[in-house]
Each structure stands twice: as C-alpha cells, then as structure tokens.
Amino acid sequence: MSWLDIASVTGFFITWVGYTVFARKKAKETWCLTSSLQWYRVEWMLRMLDRDMRMADTAILSNLERVIGFFASTSILILAGLVTALTANKAAIEVLTSLPFAEPTTVEQFELKVMLLILIFIFAFFNFTWSLRQYSFANVLIGAAPPPEAGELSEAERRRFAISTAKVIDHAGHSYNYGLRSYYFSMSVLGWFIHPLLFIAGYVFVVCVLYRREFMSRALNSILAAREGGLERQQRKKFSGKS
Fold it and tell me: How many C-beta atoms lie closer than 10 Å to residue 155's C-beta?
C-alpha cells in the first residue's frame, strides 16, 4: 500500500469514530434528531400507560422492527456478495483498471479493500440485530406495563416506568443509527477502488451529509416545531381553563 492509501484508511476510521463521538456530545448541548425524538418517546410511553388497549403501541414497534429486519437481512446478502467478489478478484480488477482515473490495483490491494467492506457490514449487522433485540425488550416492558386503573403505583413511579421504557427504545434507535451510518460510510469505500483521493472525498462528503441531516435538516425543524406547538397549545388550554 502507498502512503496515500494508508493515510486515507487512517483518516476514514478517525473520521467515523470522531463524528460518532462529536455527534453524541453535541446532542447533549443542542437539539438533533435523536434527542428530539427521545422527548416524543417519553410522551408516547406516558400516554401508553393511560390506555387500556395497547395494540397500537406494539404495532408501532413491530413496524420499526420490520424496517430494521430488512436492513439486517440485506447486510447478510451484501456480505455474501462481497465474499463472492473475493473469489472473482481478477475479473473485478480488470473492470476497475479499465475505468478512467483508476489506479493500478494488485490482487492483495483489491482483497484488502473488500475485506474492509466486509468488516463494515459485519459491524452493521451486529448493530441491526442488537437494535432488534432491544425493541423486543421494549415489547416485553409494554406488555408488563401497569394498567391505567392500577392504584398501587404513584405518579412518580409511573413516570419512572415510562422514562425507562422510552430509554430502552432510545438505545434501540441508537443501534439502528449506528447501522445506518455503516451503510453511509461503506459508500465512501467504493471510491477507494478507483483512487484514494476519491475515498477521502467520499467520507468527508458522508460526514457533511450526516451532520446536515441530524442537526440542520428540515425534518428536525418540523419535529421541534411540532413539539413547541404542542406545548403552546397546552399552555393556552391551561390559562383558558379548558381541559
């Protein structure tokens, strides 16, 4: 490997890990998609405790599990394709070298790049399956939730139960987010098959896209606006004496 290949791979891991740490710290200081949705999850669980029939809540979790299950199974199919690519490395190298601006690639270099993709999708698969398990834990907690007429629990205990259940769903959402980031960063590795500089430009672009979507997207603005609007309506009802 050339020094540019080594620098691009090192920068790839530093960028991925660095953005993950940065996003988690920044989410504690400002609103992002993850932190804003956690507020709604707590509200969801509090309202779930007030319902006798909770089929709608389990249906929502089932829909989330279905989407994550799709990504988990897709990761297995991608891994199978990547392992197959290792056996057809010479034919793949001929195709790559015919591309414009593509650097000459040896069999060992090609296999190393494919192995990096394999590691990324293994990481994604573990995150997706862990997210699925945590959603199943949330289903159990909803099934064990006290009925609304239960008088043995105080309001503080009911709120603690709701917050804890929402936290489990939040952990599942984080694992799902990590799996999705793996897909994003795997796209940048494809540029490495052509040129290391394209690889570097790829993961820098991925970080910009992730930052904009998590901290500056229109979806985030709409989520925050819905929350603020809901709080304003509650305050107007309170001051007007309406229930």
Answer: 7
Report the candidate in 126, 125, 117 with the shortest Cα–Cα distance to residue 185.
117
Handedness of CA 80, 82, 88, 92 (dihedral sign): positive
Decide: 121 and 74 in contact? Cβ < 8 Å: no
b/e code 187-224 from CB counts within 10 Å (16+ = b): ebbebbbbbbebbbebbeebbeebbeebbeeeebeebe
Label residue 195 left, alpha or beta by phi (over 0 means left) and psi (-120 to 50 means alpha): beta
Q: What is the pLDDT of residues 133-185, one digit of tens each?
A: 999 999 999 988 888 876 667 788 888 999 999 999 999 999 999 999 999 99
Mean pLDDT of 66-74: 94
Contact between 189 and 118 under an 8 Å Cβ cutoff? The reply is no
